[in-house]
Design brief:
Radius of gyration: 29 Å
Largest sheet: 5 strands, antiparallel
Strand content: 5-15%
CATH superfamily of the largest domain: DNAb Helicase, Chain A
CATH class of the largest domain: Mainly Alpha
Number of helices: 25
Number of domains: 5
Helix content: 40-55%
Distance between the termini: 62 Å
Strand order of the largest sheet: 1-2-3-4-5
Length: 598
């Protein structure tokens, strides 16, 4: 898959005017050096939404929405990251390059999208003419407006309807084959003058649309009895089922602000939920929820609820979803599981209970951590040591899948509570067991914490990071000696400071928004954005550079002090080697009061 070069994203951010981008969608008013407005992402009467042309950044002090021009397009226009890039590039008259070169199949893909659009219209026209198909949908409770909204159609019980309509020549038949709409007969046999036949027959057709609303595939539901009940398009140039979510386009087009997504199993479930006033429902496409699905979901919302049928198959699907979700679960995100009564699915349940009844069930959905504990302990007797030990061993690889951070610590505590151990002791025992499972051992509470940015006003690391963010070009003035002085330093946030300096020296940036977008997929982005929002008294780029270098000098001195103390400590229990003695002598020239233990 081709990737957009970071250099092009930097150029795009530098050339875009966030005031213009936001101003086309929100009425901005000049306020000093910045612009303000009522926030477009939540209801308010007093403006708390600010746009900074200097930082090329927006922020709402009411709901905390913030980001660059790209982030605004993604949030307001409900675009994916690549789509926001395309939108901004088109506005600036630029062609989006790819690291594998410009996508050579783009024009061919455009033809395929148009072709799919024609097939969608054909199926919709067929549905409008077929009384039996319309009666079936009416019996399922679907309204005419819903059929139009989701562009539902019907494939007649025919082996060659689509083939005859769209396969007049070899080129068109090849397009139909590439899109998975027709199938070549085994061995290339010819029957009734045709070597191919239609994939979909006597099925209600659900177009699967991408983020731009273009049809990329179909799901077909049999009207009467038959197997399979649902038939999906195969993987094609346009369609990769492990990345797509049915109903996501419609959810993003709804007028409500998306705060959560509800993941269900079937096309009909999605359609009925939307019709009932739950427009945030989506479905995976005949496959388990994948990491790609989850990354896409969490780019849009911070909360996801999985709803599954209450039968054995539903419980199995829920467990697979939990296992795939664990690596993406972290603080700031909420994952819950809703189990429906036996014999019910979202389609039937929302039909009988309505939106309010269904959303009451959503409010009672089980958090991921509780579902994990409940499921792992389901067949284990926790009343004795043997059962609790078995539970701990079963939970260990699951907890290990979680990303380091607050959420992982809290889940560890919950598991430890179940077996009546402290979290520290449980982790120590897991580390000692050392079966080297899916991920590295969890840090105990007594272990050194992961480097983080200090929010303290006096933190030298924080001051240096803020100045790099405000004036990224100042990184060019940092010498190799000044940078090397940070290598041995052990201070909160130092890893991020080193990474920022290295990145900006390797690839210079001019404005804060460029720096933020480079960290778009990294957990440190949130910390950087918070620091960017803080007002610092920095008079000029020159002053920022001077203050940055002064902070680096003090940090280098601190690193020397830490190293000197480490050598002194080692000398109390062991003999320093020649290189360490030379290092100690060099450091003591700056700290003459330091002494070695004898």
């Amino acid at each position: 898959m081709s990737r957009i070069p970071q250099g092009f994203i930097d150029e795009l951010i530098a050339r875009a005017d966030i005031v213009e981008i936001v101003g086309l969608r929100v009425q901005l008013k000049k306020a000093g050096r910045e612009y303000k407005a009522c926030c477009p992402f939540h209801d308010e009467k007093t403006p708390s939404f600010w746009v900074s042309p200097d930082k090329q950044f927006y922020h709402c002090f009411g709901c905390a929405a913030h980001g660059t021009a790209l982030g605004f397009l993604m949030a307001y226009d409900k675009l994916s990251f690549p789509e926001a890039i395309e939108e901004l590039a088109e506005r600036l008259g630029l062609e989006v390059p790819h690291e594998a070169g410009p996508t050579p199949a783009r024009r061919a893909d455009d033809d395929l999208y148009k072709f799919m659009g024609r097939v969608v219209s054909f199926y919709s026209e067929t549905l409008a003419r077929d009384a039996r198909a319309r009666q079936y949908l009416a019996a399922r409770g679907l309204e005419a407006a819903t059929l139009t909204q989701f562009a539902l159609g019907y494939a007649r019980d025919s082996w060659n309807d689509v083939l005859r309509r769209f396969g007049a020549n070899e080129a068109e038949r090849q397009q139909l084959t590439d899109l998975g709409l027709i199938i070549e007969r085994e061995g290339g046999q010819i029957r009734d003058g045709e070597r191919h036949y239609d994939r979909f027959r006597d099925r209600i057709m659900f177009p699967i649309r991408d983020a731009r609303g273009r049809a990329i595939a179909f799901g077909g539901r049999i009207i009467d009895q038959g197997e399979p009940k649902y038939l999906n398009s195969p993987e094609t140039t346009l369609f990769h089922k492990g990345r797509e979510l049915y109903g996501l386009y419609e959810a993003r087009q709804s007028r409500v602000v998306l705060k959560r997504l509800l993941v269900v199993e079937g096309y009909m479930d999605v359609v009925r939920l939307h019709q009932a006033g739950i427009p945030y429902a989506v479905a995976t496409l005949g496959t388990a929820t994948t990491p790609e699905h989850l990354k896409r979901i969490f780019r849009l919302v911070n909360e996801v609820v999985f709803a599954f049928d209450g039968d054995r198959a539903g419980r199995a699907a829920a467990w697979r979803a939990l296992q795939n979700t664990l690596p993406e679960a972290r603080e700031g995100r909420e994952v819950r599981f809703l189990f429906l009564p036996d014999g019910q699915d979202p389609d039937s349940l929302v039909g009988s209970e309505g939106r309010e009844g269904f959303e009451k069930r959503l409010a009672a959905a089980v958090p991921l951590s509780e579902y994990l504990v409940r499921e792992v302990s389901a067949d284990i007797d926790l009343s004795h040591a043997d059962g609790r030990a078995r539970f701990a061993e079963a939970a260990r690889p699951l907890v290990a899948k979680l990303a380091p951070g607050v959420y992982r610590e809290l889940v560890l505590e919950r598991v430890a509570q179940t077996i009546k151990l402290s979290a520290v002791r449980l982790q120590e025992l897991w580390n000692q067991a050392g079966t080297r499972a899916a991920s590295a051992p969890l840090p105990t509470r007594s272990a050194a914490p992961r480097a983080r940015i200090s929010s303290g006003r006096g933190s030298l690391v924080r001051q240096a990071i803020v100045r790099l963010l405000q004036f990224p070009a100042s990184a060019a003035r940092i010498s190799e000696t000044e940078r090397a002085g940070l290598d041995r330093l052990q201070e909160p946030g130092i890893e991020l400071l080193r990474a920022l300096i290295d990145d900006l020296k390797r690839t210079p940036a001019q404005i804060p928004a460029q720096v933020i977008e480079r960290w778009a997929d990294k957990p440190e982005r949130e910390s950087l954005e918070k620091l960017l929002l803080k007002e610092e008294v920095i008079t000029s780029a020159l002053a920022a550079g001077d203050e940055l270098r002064a902070a680096l000098l003090k940090l280098s001195e601190l690193a020397n002090t830490q190293r000197l103390e480490a050598l002194q400590l080692k000398s109390r229990t062991a003999t320093l080697d020649d290189s360490e003695l030379q290092e100690f002598q060099r450091l003591t020239t700056k700290h003459p009061a330091a002494k070695l233990s004898r």
